[in-house]
């Protein structure tokens, strides 16, 4: 569990609700009770979609507030995020959720300039090309690297599972890997691309090779298919909400008919055919026919300890697999400056720093440029990401030392003059799960070890994608799966 400060307690009052309360059971569930452990985006969305289907859902959350990683902070007239900053409107499940929760009017769209992204190279920021022709003149790749890309359609497929580094270097060459793929993977996983599995961590990229034999051919086929598609399309816009991403979490919690039980760390779970799942926190025990665990992998390992099994070694092996999923530490540091203190115009989404630059800083976001009204008119705020798979040294420092390091590392890229007006660090001891080689097999073995338990479901970002959109998609799919299973059982 993350160890960052909490800033808000879960409010379950109906006052100030942004949308309608889903109330009418739709008839599939017969009002069956479901317990969801964890009120991050995976757990809250699972609960919300299940309630939409008529289930009677209770969410138990260890922390003092709902939202998990989604934590919005208001400070000195500014608003920033400790964790995720925004999401892309490219998932139908997210669109359904926003509409169903009555949050459409609360959406804020990113400024047009936020589409510009920078890459750090030799101490300077270079804008990524936004059009194919600009790629030819861009200084991000050397000429040899650009020519190597032209060979990509003729590269053969690999037989075994590869890391992202192996896959990208084989298909696109070392320059593309070093200056483009490596920083993007750091931006998503804060991880080491020479450990992450292409199949598990970048399945869409892997699928392009599988289906089209080439990333370039596959990307082109996708563009053509998108153009030819009829019917309503998601616009792919970058978004947040007026009060930040936490607004989504607090709204969903407010709309649950059973108040989320915060400050409730689940300590153990047992199961029997007669009583279903017995979930214990302190002296309190809850009982339900169905249980969703939407918590980090190490917590799942602990919570499945007392579950009955016909194959004890298999359950122990699954616990070991769960504990082996790495979550490197990351710090996010938000900083405010007078505009005159920063030479760079910060006219974009942010900048990613490739490993080749030998920095502990992974990247920096420009929240006051991405969304309107996030900072005072004469100020910039930016959020720096440090640590992860390559920044172990930085994570051994004190927060003050880390701030000094980050300011020193960013100086040449941004042209920073003097000290920030304020800074605020959020330390994530276990930030983002790493889908390393063998991850898909690991997840399959965990599922297999628990397959004999009816009504037990595992969600959360350690299994089917780390993006917010993945978590929402999986939550919606779970609700539909449970409905289908119940219809079949009748
Ligand atoms: C710094 C950072 C930046 C990120 N940026 C982005 C981004 O820009 N875009 C993006 O798409 N994704 C981003 N992500 C990833 C994304 O935030 C996560 O993948 C997602 O929020 C995970 O949600 P979750 O509900 O699965 O898990 P969590 O948010 O970890 O929620 C799990 C919840 O379970 C609770 N819990 C744990 N154990 C127990 C227990 N025993 N009993 C009761 N409750 C328990 C925890 O307190 C927590 O609230 C970022 C992540 C981090 C850390």
The proportion of residues in beta strands is 15-25%
Radius of gyration, in Å, reads 23 Å
* Distance, first to last CA: 38 Å
Fourth-level CATH superfamily of the largest domain: FAD/NAD(P)-binding domain
- Shape label: globular
What is the helical fraction, as a range of percent? 25-40%
What name does the CATH topology of the largest domain carry?
FAD/NAD(P)-binding domain
Indicate how many domains the architecture comprises: 3
Bound molecules: flavin-adenine dinucleotide
- Strands in their spatial order, largest beta sheet: 8-7-15-16-17-14-18
For the sheet with most strands, the description reads:
7 strands, mixed
What is the arithmetic mean of pLDDT? 91
The CATH class of the largest domain, by name, is Alpha Beta
CATH architecture descriptor name of the largest domain: 3-Layer(bba) Sandwich
Structural class, please? alpha+beta
Number of helices: 17
Low-confidence stretches: 1-27
Number of DSSP-assigned strands: 19
For this entry, give a set of tags.
490 residues; alpha+beta; FAD/NAD(P)-binding domain; protoporphyrinogen ix oxidase, domain 3; Polyamine Oxidase, Chain A, domain 2; 3 domains; seven-stranded mixed β-sheet; four-stranded parallel β-sheet; 17 helices; 36% helix; 19% strand; globular; disordered N terminus; binds flavin-adenine dinucleotide
């Amino acid at each position: 569990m993350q160890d960052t400060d909490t800033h808000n307690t879960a409010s379950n009052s109906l006052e100030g609700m942004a949308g309608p309360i889903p109330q009418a059971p739709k008839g599939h569930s017969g009002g069956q009770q479901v317990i969801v452990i964890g009120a991050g985006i995976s757990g809250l969305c699972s609960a919300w979609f299940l309630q939409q289907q008529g289930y009677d859902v209770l969410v138990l959350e260890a922390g003092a507030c709902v939202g998990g990683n989604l934590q919005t902070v208001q400070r000195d007239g500014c608003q920033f995020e400790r964790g995720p900053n925004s999401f892309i409107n490219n998932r139908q499940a997210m669109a359904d959720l926003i509409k169903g929760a009555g949050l459409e009017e609360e959406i804020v769209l990113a400024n047009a300039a936020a589409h510009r992204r920078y890459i750090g190279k030799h101490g300077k920021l270079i804008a990524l090309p936004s059009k194919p022709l600009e790629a030819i003149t861009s200084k991000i790749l050397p000429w040899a690297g650009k020519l190597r890309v032209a060979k990509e359609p003729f590269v053969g497929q690999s037989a075994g599972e590869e890391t992202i580094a192996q896959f990208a270097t084989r298909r696109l060459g070392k320059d593309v890997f070093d200056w483009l793929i490596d920083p993007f993977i750091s931006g998503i996983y804060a991880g080491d691309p020479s450990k992450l599995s292409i199949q598990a961590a970048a399945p869409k990229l892997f699928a392009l090779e599988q289906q089209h034999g080439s990333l370039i051919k596959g990307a082109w086929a996708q563009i053509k298919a998108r153009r030819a598609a009829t019917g309503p399309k998601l616009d792919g816009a970058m978004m947040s909400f007026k009060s930040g991403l936490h607004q989504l979490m607090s709204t969903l919690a407010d709309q649950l008919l059973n108040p989320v039980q915060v400050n409730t760390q689940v300590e153990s779970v047992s199961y029997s055919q007669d009583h279903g799942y017995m979930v214990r926190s302190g002296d309190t025990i809850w009982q339900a026919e169905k249980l969703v665990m939407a918590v980090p992998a190490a917590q799942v390992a602990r919570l499945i300890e007392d579950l009955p099994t016909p194959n004890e070694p298999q359950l122990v092996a699954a616990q070991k697999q769960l504990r082996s999923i790495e979550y490197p530490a990351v710090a996010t540091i938000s900083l405010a400056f007078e505009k005159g203190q920063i030479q760079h115009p910060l006219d974009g989404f942010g900048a990613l720093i490739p490993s080749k630059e030998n920095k502990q800083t992974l990247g920096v976001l420009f929240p006051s440029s991405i969304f309107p009204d996030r900072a005072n008119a004469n100020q910039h705020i930016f959020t720096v990401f440090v640590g992860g798979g390559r920044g172990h040294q930085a994570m051994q420092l004190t927060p003050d030392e880390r701030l000094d390091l980050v300011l020193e590392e960013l100086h040449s890229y941004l042209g920073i003059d003097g000290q920030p007006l304020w800074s605020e660090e959020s330390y994530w001891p276990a930030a983002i799960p790493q889908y390393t080689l063998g991850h898909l097999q690991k997840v399959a073995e965990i599922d297999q070890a628990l397959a004999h338990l009816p009504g037990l479901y595992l969600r959360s970002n350690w299994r089917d994608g780390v993006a917010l959109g993945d978590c929402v998609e999986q939550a919606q799919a779970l609700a539909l799966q449970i409905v289908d299973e119940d219809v079949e059982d009748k």
